[in-house]
Amino acid sequence: xxxxxxxxxxxxxxxxxxxxxxxxxxxxxxxxxxxxxxxxxxxxxxxxxxxxxxxxxxxxxxxxxxxxxxxxxxxxxxxxxxxxxxxxxxxxxxxxxxxxxxxxxxxxxxxxxxxxxxxxxxxxxxxxxxxxxxxxxxxxxxxxxxxxxxxxxxxxxxxxxxxxxxxxxxxxxxxxxxxxxxxxxxxxxxxxxxxxxxxxxxxxxxxxxxxxxxxxxxxxxxxxxxxxxxxxxxxxxxxxxxxxxxxxxxxxxxxxxxxxxxxxxxxxxxxxxxxxxxxxxxxxxxxxxxxxxxxxxxxxxxxxxxxxxxxxxxxxxxxxxxxxxxxxxxxxxxxxxxxxxxxxxxxxxxxxxxxxxxxxxxxxxxxxxxx
Length: 371
Known about the structure:
Layout: E1 6-12, H1 19-27, E2 34-40, H2 45-51, E3 60-64, H3 70-79, E4 86-89, E5 95-96, H4 100-110, E6 114-125, E7 130-131, H5 140-150, H6 156-159, E8 162-164, H7 165-171, H8 184-193, E9 197-210, H9 215-220, H10 224-242, H11 249-264, H12 266-269, H13 278-291, H14 300-307, H15 310-320, H16 324-342, H17 347-370
Parallel strand pairs: 1-2, 1-4, 2-3, 6-9
Antiparallel strand pairs: 4-8, 5-9, 6-7, 6-8
Helix pairs in contact: 7-8, 8-10, 10-11, 10-13, 11-14, 11-15, 15-16, 16-17
């Protein structure tokens, strides 16, 4: 038998009615050199019984945890196992096309610097849309900027792709918090991006089931003040990913302002939010840093400069969300600012970086106008 290239992690709790379909889907993959770790949470004997018939396949093994880890503890336990070249997170209620592994591996082998290779996600069940997360590539600070600019849009596809184990070892585990780590995955993805590119395969090969018991539904039902409090944890997580990459005080300031601006725009992205304004959210973010003892990510002496001009930046973000053309203009301005920071002494490199972005943006605009 060939050495497995992929470790598939399947964390599950109270999924006895759905897990068999997900495991059967794995057995039907056209690429078969993988191993599967089924991680059953909270001594869930019913789910363990539903999984047991699949253990006849030597590629499958199961661990039943006696205590409840919750999703983030279970996910982190899987991340700390002896993973093969790639890790694939598979939710117990999701499936994929038979060629899922084969297609993604083909793309990953062509780009060894990609931390994550993923495809589009097609929703099934109570939704039928396709979730898309464009590729992210370029200089490491530019990758971080692209990631922050896309929030709070879809980040689901990268979590469900093939993630290089080397990138996982660089990123570490997902942070825990009192909100079931509902938004901590964003900071973890940002740390993966600091290792390498994210590569999208433009095919809807992952099938994500939307149903009443999903974790996403649980989060959407929270009161607005609890959602806002959870949102502040993403502020800390993103700063934790970005600040180690910054070489100068100017780069720190740029990303502190960019991240805070995006987080502070949260009420705009959720027009139903009736419990607070951007000002309340900014205050809560700073309080969260102190609560977590993470003030080194945004020091007291840096706060005044970060807050200066914040209302103008918020207006830029909100204005940019009204159309894709306006979003493109905003991104051009951001690349101009970042280019001066990345290449302060080289006009040629700065111009090359900014021109490359303009070319990519013009291609996107051309595709949009062609429809």
